[in-house]
Amino acid sequence: MKSQNKSCILLFFSCLLLLTGCVSTHNSNSGSAHHLVLCWLKTPGDQGAKAELIRVSNGFVDIPGVLSVSAGSAIPSDRPIVDSSFDVAILIVLENESALRKYLEHPDHKAAQANTLRPLVDRVLVYDFTVGSSGPD
Predict the structure, then answer these.
(1) 10 CB contacts (<8 Å, ≥6 apart)?
(2) Region 82-102 average pLDDT
(3) How confident is the model at residue 133, as a pLDDT?
(4) Is residue 26 part of a domain?
(5) Which of 8, 26, 33, 62 could cysteine-pair with 100, CB 3.0–4.6 Å?
(6) Which alpha helices (DSSP H) does the chain contain, by range?
């Protein structure tokens, strides 16, 4: 019986060591960065302008560091807590905060700002946040 208890204890500590070896240390740059852009068009409700903004935004998935892109129209709501006054929302998920900074300076992003966003959009509101990280130390 003592041999079996020793084996169980040894197995427990072996598993504990393996598990602690798999845990990464905190790194403020380890969380994914989310870049949420809300757009109000110069011509509110213009379906062609919405489609163009969404099409161009979806191309950002090819920029290094971008994990995913979601773009679409506001869902109308009469709930007081919901602001559905914008025309298009764009959510870009990036590897981390460093990737977000590089994305903002990328030539494809700069070109989209100059050639699509500025000509079509009257107002922009941006929210940047991290997920899976407590943010900068």
Answers:
(1) none
(2) 98
(3) 64
(4) no
(5) 33
(6) 2-22, 47-58, 97-105, 107-112, 118-120
Instruction: Report d(CA 57, CA 119) in Å as an integer.
Output: 15
DSSP summary character for residue 65: T
The CA-atom distances, in angstroms, between 76 and each of 18, 49, 85 are 50, 18, 8
CB 103 within 8 A of CB 66: yes
- Return the number of other C-beta atoms located less than 10 Å from residue 56's C-beta: 19
Distance of CA 80 to the CA centre of its chain: 26
Q: What is the pLDDT of residue 8?
A: 36
Q: Is residue 120 part of a domain?
A: yes
Q: What pLDDT score does 132 carry?
A: 85
Q: What is the separation of C-alpha 86 from the centre of its chain, rounded to a whole number of angstroms?
A: 19
**pLDDT range class, residue 17, cuts 50, 70, 90:** very low
